[in-house]
Write a structure and sequence with these properties.
about 280 residues, alpha+beta
């Protein structure tokens, strides 16, 4: 065997010995880092994060490690402590959140950790991550006061602006009729909701926008707003468009948008049409 072959074989043998050793070191380091994280949380009395950590697979791995077997009774005691603290915090949070919402005139429905404010505004409190989501937007806080303030802001954006249900439904019909004519779709048949939404947003733009399509001149119209406006139209109970045609939303699972139906429930809508009033 020449020197080159000898050294190559030696390298492979050492790598074969080293890799399992290195993997074991990394595994041990991960367990050590997890324990340090638990210690930091316990020191700060961060029972929310500690409760989350003790529910993970990593906690189970620590308890099963022979060298760390004494962690299990400690973890069990901590689990009991954090459960009590989290439950106490949850009850206090719900009480404070409900009181602050009532004081602000915010109609909140709580199904902890989820809540809703009118149709089209949904939130979730994620204690372990210290965040609250409202309509998929993240608030880096679980302070009830800040959550109420953020929810009020969303309500103002979606509900507290002038809304004329008759004007709104007539504008939807105009867009529907335009697409039906362009795409040779018979009146009464649905048009794809994605196509409709795009065309409707275009219809909201000013004439000057089409001569200079600067983004600053673009009038946005979010899907959230579209869904809420449809619900506000249904709730107004004015009937159909000025020509007597009534709005129909067709459910579907392909190429859909989440909108709000006449019962105030979120639905996957794939088509939209206007039908003759048969009553």
């Amino acid at each position: 065997m020449n020197e080159e072959s000898f050294l190559q074989n030696t390298e492979e043998e050492l790598n074969g010995i080293f890799r399992p050793f290195q993997q074991e070191l990394k595994r041990g380091q991960r367990l050590a880092d997890f324990l340090k994280q638990c210690i930091r949380c316990a020191t700060r009395d961060d029972f929310l994060q500690l409760d989350e950590l003790l529910r993970t697979k990593k906690a189970e791995n620590v308890e099963q490690e022979e060298a760390l077997i004494d962690c299990k009774p400690v973890f069990d005691s901590l689990r009991e402590y954090t459960r009590e603290q989290v439950e106490r915090y949850r009850l206090q949070f719900i009480e404070d959140f409900g009181r602050l919402a009532e004081e602000a005139g915010l109609p909140v429905k709580m199904d902890f950790p989820r809540f809703s404010v009118l149709e089209g505004i949904d939130g979730k409190i994620v204690f372990s991550k210290r965040i609250t989501t409202i309509n998929k937007k993240t608030l880096k806080s679980i302070d009830p006061r800040r959550i109420v303030t953020a929810a009020l802001r969303v309500k103002k954006q979606l509900y507290d602006r002038p809304f004329d249900p008759q004007k709104f439904i007539d504008s939807l019909y105009e867009t529907y009729a335009k697409i039906s004519k362009m795409d040779n779709i018979s009146q009464g048949n649905p048009v794809p909701i994605l196509r409709f939404y795009l065309e409707y947003v275009i219809s909201l733009q000013s004439k000057t926008f089409f001569t200079n399509m600067d983004k600053a001149k673009f009038r946005g119209y979010s899907l959230e707003q579209f869904g809420v406006d449809i619900w506000r139209y249904f709730k107004a109970g004015i009937g159909g468009a000025s020509n007597g045609k009534k709005l129909s939303l067709d459910p579907g699972r392909n190429y859909f948008l989440w909108l709000i139906d006449s019962n105030g429930e979120p639905r996957q809508i794939s088509g939209i049409s206007f039908l003759k009033d048969e009553t």
